[in-house]
Design goal:
Layout (H helix, E strand, L loop, with lengths): L1 H15 L1 E6 L4 H6 L2 E3 L1 H10 L4 E5 L2 H10 L4 E3 L8 H4 L3 H10 L4 E5 L4 H4 L4 E3 L4 H5 L6 E5 L2 H10 L4 E4 L5 H4 L3 H9 L4 E5 L5 H4 L4 E2 L2 H10 L4 E5 L4 H8 L4 E3 L15 H10 L8 H17 L2
Parallel strand pairs: 1-2, 1-3, 3-4, 5-6, 5-7, 7-8, 9-10, 9-11, 11-12
Helix pairs in contact: 1-15, 3-4, 4-16, 13-14
Amino acid sequence: MEKDIKDQILKLKKEKNAIILAHYYQIPEIQDIADAVGDSYYLSEIARDCKESVIVFCGVKFMAESAKILSPEKTVLFPVLDAGCPMADMANTADLIKLKNQHPKALTVCYINSSTEVKALCDVCVTSSSALKIMKKVDNQEIIFLPDRNLGGYIAEQFPDKKFILWEGFCPTHEKIEKESILKLKNSLEDVKILVHPECNKEIRNIADYIGSTSGIIKHATESTNKNYIIVTEEGVLYELKKSNPNKNFHVIDSGMICNNMKKTTLEDVYGSLLNMQNEIILDEDTRIKAHRALMNMHEMAR
């Protein structure tokens, strides 16, 4: 049955001139049918530059919206409309406008994990893989960073000469992890390295051997000579890690790290979306244009 629906999706993809993009946190079946699998930054590049006229985005909503912001002429389909991002939902425009008014000289920087409306009020977007490179090119001494206080705190540590005003948002999947769980696992293993996403809080980052984006974690584990790793980010990344490194061992804490929204998309959802061209992302054009500036600044400054 799974092979049948995969074949039907591939057939529809050709008929509709579509490309399927999937985040590393998607279920393995979705990653297998995708034309490109990656982190938010990589996927936003692919969405911007692809020749196909239809993009099927398998991730969470801000990712599909970002694809539409960058490519308004393309049809962007989002198979599961309620696959949202709790962190993105923690930022709102009314409070951001107030904060900007309180700090008129600040550069407003938003994590790509934010709504189109929030991006429209920001000067530049960043991803976890591009943030440090972008911030090195910023002259402003005062930075408003939202919505993730953990990623913002990690960036602030690298730029002690700047003043960061951090929004009190967070990723529930990364925030709930306890240091004791990681150390307990570490003590049960030999010669193991801890690889941590910067969406984790400072207590977790402090015990990491490596801190980086999803793609950064994959690259580090692939290039390192170590055999054993504890992976502290959403477990979907294990599929690519194990596929790329069959001779290495990847461990996660017992309680796991699962983003339920990232796991909502099924092959049936992708098939239905393509078949009926349903769940199209539609954005207000004035808001899209304003948000486009922040995303394009991200791509230009990350070069």
